[in-house]
Amino acid sequence: MSIRCTRFRPYERNTLRAFADLELTSVGIVIRDCTWHRKEDGQEWVGFPAKTYQDKNGNTLWEPLVKFADGAKEAREQFQRQALEAIHAAAAGEHAETQNEIFRHKPARHGRISGASGTVGPSRNIAAEDHFHSDPIPF
Question: Is 37 helix (H, G, I), strand (E, B) or coil?
């Protein structure tokens, strides 16, 4: 399995860091609006798109629209690793593009502009290749 982040939209609220569209390249499926979360202790994960609903007490809860089947632990772990790798690459590209935008509008000092070189935009295709030593999960 290989995953590519085809769209990255930063959005910070609580543990949420961004929304991402992820393409499962081996099967040609794009999962839109996945969520990237990170806790203060560094723990992070990717969530599938979800819809809200109210429980019997009126609390708002979230139900994922896509999920892994019970017992698909290996596929779930492989997805998490590769999705995070693709999102990290997209986040790094977003940072580089933001820095380049700042430098384009900032006057150069002493004839030099220092900072990020080259841009990788958030909507460009950024692949997370399979760097794992386990056998790929067949789909």
Answer: strand
Rounded to a whole number of angstroms, the distance between the first and last alpha carbons of the chain is 9
Name the percent of the chain lying above pLDDT 90: 65
Total number of domains in the chain: 1
> Domain range for residue 18?
3-106
Measured distance CA(74)–CA(117) in Å, rounded: 38
Q: How far is CA 33 from CA 20, 42, 90, 115, 137, in A?
A: 5, 22, 14, 31, 23
Q: What is the pTM of this model?
A: 0.68
Give the Cα separation of 95 and 87 in Å (integer): 12
The answer to whether residue 120 sits within a structural domain is: no
Using CA atoms, how far apart are residues 85 and 103, in angstroms rounded to an integer? 27
Identify the DSSP state of 56: T
Local structure of 113: helix, strand or coil: coil
Alpha helices in the chain (DSSP H): 73-105
